[in-house]
Design brief:
Blueprint lengths: L6 E3 L16 H9 L4 E4 L4 H11 L5 E3 L4 E5 L20 E4 L3 E5 L4 H6 L1
Parallel strand pairs: 1-2, 2-3
Antiparallel strand pairs: 3-4, 4-6, 5-6
Length: 117
């Protein structure tokens, strides 16, 4: 089995500078694209904020939002269907939702549940 390199990166102060520019990272980003290495964005930002940046970067890979609260996997990214997976976790099944564009693995607690606590 061939090993696949994957790069996970934060955004603020890592891929993006203090002006929210990724210009200084462009040579590295070009090398990553040339070598077909997936770049997975991991950040505290929301889905909407990440999608804007992904569009600018022309990034089509999965991403992790809100400090790990959700993992967004484009529906056409893998050959298998992700919905209804049964991972081996003590808490039981993962919460997997589907939107028009993504399979969404929900790892955080819903805001409404937190407000009731």
């Amino acid at each position: 089995m061939k090993k696949q390199l994957i790069i996970f990166t934060d955004l603020d102060g890592t891929l993006l500078d203090s002006k929210y520019s990724f210009d200084k990272a462009c040579p590295a980003l070009a090398l990553i694209k040339k070598n077909r290495i997936p770049l997975v964005l991991c950040t505290s930002k929301t889905q909407a904020e990440i999608e804007l940046l992904r569009k600018k970067l022309r990034n089509t890979h999965p991403f992790i939002s809100e400090n790990g609260g959700g993992v967004f996997i484009p529906k056409d990214y893998f050959k298998i269907k992700i919905a209804n997976c049964k991972p081996c976790l003590p808490a039981g099944r993962l919460q997997i939702a589907e939107s028009r564009k993504y399979y969404i693995i929900k790892l955080g607690t819903e805001y409404s549940v937190l407000r009731k606590a």
